[in-house]
Amino acid sequence: MSKFNLKELGLKDNTIKEFESLYEGMYLGRVVCEQKNYYKVITEKGVISAKVSGKIMYNACSIASYPAVGDWVAMDRDEDAQGEAIIHGTLERYSKFSRKTVGPKDDEQIIAVNIDTVFITMSLNNNFNLRRLERYISTAWESEAEPVVLLTKADLCEDLEEKLLEVSKVAIGVDILVVSSLTNEGIDKVKEYITNGKTVAFIGSSGVGKSTLINKFLGYEKMKVSEIRESDGKGRHTTTYRELIVIPQGGVVIDTPGMRELPIMDIEDGIESAFRDIEELTIQCKFGNCTHDGEPGCAVKEAISKGVISEERYKSYIKLKKEAEFMAKKEKTKKLKESKKGRIKKSGKKDFVEII
Ligand SMILES: Nc1nc2c(ncn2[C@@H]2O[C@H](COP(=O)(O)OP(=O)(O)OP(=O)(O)O)[C@@H](O)[C@H]2O)c(=O)[nH]1
Ligand SMILES: [Mg+2]
Ligand SMILES: [Zn+2]
Predict the structure, then answer these.
(1) What CATH code is carried by the domain that includes residue 68?
(2) Domain region containing 134
(3) Within 10 Å of residue 236's Cβ, how many Cβ atoms?
(4) Which of 50, 147, 194, 338 is 20 to 30 Å from 303 at the Cα level?
(5) How far is the CA of 270 from the centre of ligand 3 (A)?
(6) Best residue among 120, 225, 240, 260 to mutate for probing ligand 1, ranked by most atoms within 8 Å of CB
(7) For the chain, what is the domain count?
């Protein structure tokens, strides 16, 4: 008997086609959470425990090629029994939100895949930061999911109009929602994105109220929530692992631990989309190879001097572009090395603290 309808959990026709042609006799499921090599996967029958096959481990050329939260996977069974089910393959992802791991390594860390919408969650009090927002928006465009800016804790904000105006200047082509979990302002607007078959990932700093909102949609306190420190307004990193949650009224959400920083991978396309105002201006410069550094007829410098674009936004654009170019070069060298080496082991992974 089926407990869940996989299409309601976000299964798309293309994934079904791919699954039917490659994994005859196997079962489909969606990754709910992961710790080291152990997975919780939701199938038509319920949530089961699973691990990846030895072949997947052997062939993995990077940590990012292991299944991630939100992935559709092919398994040898769809019911819990003794021992874990074996994951034999991951179906093609239609979107992927990832970052560079924090620290000196240049590995990719996948936050969530197969998501339709990224809720870039930022609170309207201490967490408010336009430069950080630009970084998140660029990464979200790169993910292929639709970015939405979710401004939380509206009850704690005294200059909403001003903040909204500032956000609208950096979130071009992006929906902006204002919400308060305390007063319920804006909750219905947020709900419009969480509907049958759709997947929404909540991403942002710690303490901005991601889990509080998800609890609201669930109707009970499933996700752990905790007070932020009064002294500096910083969150406590209450959510410690990424988790996919099925909302009873329809839709799927992914809760993620708050991020201290968002180091980027090679996201040049995402930056182009996020800074389309500046990109469009560069085409209007007098010289095709304008460096926007004092040349005559520079449309970018003119826009900055007229206050159409702020100096800070332009600096932020240049900084992100440089970071992305640097990562693109690194990626290239790394891929070359990997193709020579063949595979890597997953032993270095340690970003999971807990398992449900
Ligand atoms: N005033 C106010 N407080 C809120 C609101 N939403 C959440 N909070 C409070 O903010 C604190 C942090 O909320 P969480 O939901 O744990 O934040 P989070 O984004 O999940 O944090 P991490 O799990 O650490 O990433 C809690 O004390 C919440 O009660 C809101 O709309 N208004
Ligand atoms: Mg949380
Ligand atoms: Zn120029």
Answers:
(1) 2.40.50.140
(2) 96-255
(3) 12
(4) 147
(5) 21
(6) 225
(7) 3
Closest CA to 11 of 276, 204, 199: 199
Same domain, 216 and 324: no
What one-letter code names the amino acid at 124?
A: L
Query: How many residues are listed for the chain in this entry?
Result: 356
Ligand 1 neighbours (beta carbon < 6 A): 152-153, 155-156, 180-182, 206-212, 225-228, 235-239, 257-258
Contact call for residues 137 and 169 (beta carbons, < 8 A): no
Same domain? 317 vs 182:
no
The one-letter amino acid code at 175 reads D
Whether residues 132 and 239 share a domain: the answer is yes
Assigned domain for 349 exists: no
Distances (CA, A) of 56 to 53, 143, 233: 5, 24, 43
